[in-house]
Amino acid sequence: MASGDHYLCNSCKYEWRTRKDVGKPGFCPKCKWDKIVNVSVQEYNEQININEDSNYNAEKICKVGVKVLPEFHYLVDDNGNIIRENEGKTQLVARIGIKKQSGYLYFVDKDGDVSRRKSSWS
């Protein structure tokens, strides 16, 4: 984490920046709620178009219907399973084992299904 990361509280919508390299804050300094979001990560997801509003040129690969909670980051791992991460802890959510093709970015969409789109890095 870099000094000056930008955070947002999901409860009271209070925004703040960190001053020191101390790791992710544990709670909102205003309301003491522990469901906070790193705005830099949120902006990055919007830049690569994996936000809740749009999945531009995305193709749904597998209907799973996982309940997507805002405090977790959902990924498709190397084995093709859905995992979720929060504060360094990883949990297996669904064992589906899809076969990934190179040149695509695989992600869990807002419906909780696995989708893919052409990767801009390949």
Outline the structure in words.
This protein is mainly beta and 122 residues long. The protein is built from one helix and nine strands. The chain has one helix spanning 39-47, and strands spanning 6-9, 15-17, 36-38, 59-62, 73-76, 82-86, 89-94, 104-108, 114-118. Strand 5 (73-76) and strand 6 (82-86) form a beta hairpin. The radius of gyration is 16 Å and the shape is elongated. Mean pLDDT is 77; it is low at 47-55.
Please give the domain count.
2
Helix fraction, binned, reads under 10%
The main β sheet shows up as: 3 strands, antiparallel
| Relative strand content | 25-35%
Rg measurement, Å: 16 Å
The total count of strands amounts to 9
User: What is the residue-averaged pLDDT?
Assistant: 77
Outline the fold blueprint.
Blueprint: E1 6-9, E2 15-17, E3 36-38, H1 39-47, E4 59-62, E5 73-76, E6 82-86, E7 89-94, E8 104-108, E9 114-118
Please outline what is shown here:
With 122 residues, the chain is mostly beta strands. It is built from 1 helix and 9 strands, in the order βββαββββββ. The model is unreliable at 47-55 (pLDDT under 50).
What descriptors fit this protein?
single chain; 122 residues; mainly beta; 2 domains; three-stranded antiparallel sheet
